From TrEMBL:
NCBIfam families: PRK07231.1
Organism: Corynebacterium flavescens
Family, as annotated: Belongs to the short-chain dehydrogenases/reductases (SDR) family.
First and last residue of the signal peptide: none
This protein's record includes keyword Disulfide bond: no
Domain Ketoreductase: 11-222
Gene Ontology molecular function, alphabetical: oxidoreductase activity, acting on the CH-OH group of donors, NAD or NADP as acceptor
Protein name (database record): 3-oxoacyl-ACP reductase
């Protein structure tokens, strides 16, 4: 539940990558604020867990691999069959492959690019006509890695820079058609994707050292920012990538000693 409430009653929201972590928190936040919510992902059980306890008439779970070229159209058809419209789309599906570029497995690079970049492109191509019809908006989950560089993250940063650039260009192309396009840029956030990386205070210390608020992010820190960008309170905001990073980007890069 978010601290502030937003009016998403009678609106239909699609959240890709809704099985765990940030996507699950976003889906539940929209449900708590009155929306009907569609969650997509590659496995049914965690999708069902994401919307468990909410009225079935306001939820839809779709097993959908957004990296497939036809996935966007299939998603739109299924959503319109049940709800008849799409008002908000949250492009959250993504994976991380870290490490030195020369050691990166080519197949893993293709998979990461296919999900993080191609999947966003396929999704946007399919949903933009629907958002034009409803005067809706799209919010992408980018990353602070899409705003600058980082050690051992060259491939991932490349995909997230693509996401941030795509958001800005889409905002220009669709603003006059009544569609807003924005993104959030989290820093290191505790999710299933990075389990084991910062589970102890000692492991977390190098990450916390870079965060002004002195703690790592949680999925529930990201969801309210997405709701704000999707709401009418952000009605004059488009083409923006909002840092939701605890102050990570406030630093000039020097160590906190």
């Amino acid at each position: 539940m978010t601290v502030n409430t937003y009016s998403f009653q009678d609106q239909v929201v699609v959240v890709t990558g809704g099985s765990h972590g940030i996507g699950r928190a976003i889906a539940r936040a929209f449900l708590d604020n009155g929306a009907s919510v569609v969650v997509t992902g590659r496995n049914l059980k965690p999708l069902e867990e994401s919307v468990a306890g909410y009225p079935g008439e306001r939820t839809l779970t779709l097993v959908n691999d957004i990296s497939e070229p036809a996935a966007g159209e299939e998603l739109v058809a299924a959503v319109k069959e049940k709800f008849g419209r799409i008002d908000v789309v949250v492009s959250n599906a993504g994976i991380v492959e870290a490490g030195d570029l020369v050691d990166m497995d080519v197949d893993k690079w293709h998979q990461m690019r296919a999900i993080n970049v191609d999947g966003f492109v396929y999704l946007a191509r399919a949903v933009m006509p629907e958002l034009v019809n409803t005067g809706g908006n799209l919010v992408a989950v980018s990353s602070v890695s899409g705003l600058g560089g980082d050690w051992g993250q060259a491939g991932y940063a490349a995909t997230k820079h693509a996401v941030s650039g795509f958001v800005r260009s889409l905002a220009l192309d669709y603003g006059e058609k009544g569609v807003r396009v924005n993104a959030v840029a989290p820093a290191f956030t505790h999710t299933r994707l990075n389990e084991g990386s910062a589970d102890t205070l000692e492991d977390a210390a190098p990450y916390v050292n870079r965060v002004a608020l002195g703690r790592l992010g949680q999925p529930e820190d990201i969801a309210p920012a997405v709701l704000f960008l999707a709401s009418q309170d952000a009605g004059y905001i488009t083409g923006h990538v909002l840092n939701v990073d605890g102050g990570t980007n406030a630093s000039n890069g020097q160590a906190h000693v």
